[in-house]
Amino acid sequence: MTNLVVSMVRFSAALTLYGVEQLENSLSLLEGGTDVSKTILGMEKTLNSMSDVLMREMDAKKKETLDSVSKASQEMVDRTLEGMEIMDPREVFKASSDLLQKTSDVTAKWVSKAAEAMEKATQAAKPSAETQPAEEAQPVGAK
Known about the structure:
Helices cover 78% and strands 0% of the residues. It is an all-alpha fold. The protein has one domain (2-117). The protein is globular. The mean pLDDT is 79.
């Protein structure tokens, strides 16, 4: 059971840190520090790889559900992008900035929760002072 809890905390922390890294990459893009298409392709490849790993552990019915959700998501994104073609670029930038801020806030909460969970798991794994042998008492002034 302990290993399961530690594995869950590890997975949560890895996912959180990956999110933080992607947020940093996004900020770097906004500052013009990296190539947009290269960053997007790298993130897409990583997310698809992670999804594929999780899919390997699913039964056939859940895989069908995931495929259905993926197709519906693709259609929604396609329609959204078609609608955005007529939008004012300033409004799109404002909406993107708002989304980035919200993502940053959520990520900060995730990191905080992951740190708390890690601290609790670490504390639970430490042997208590009661189970450790007491040090020999030395007289006052003795070295």
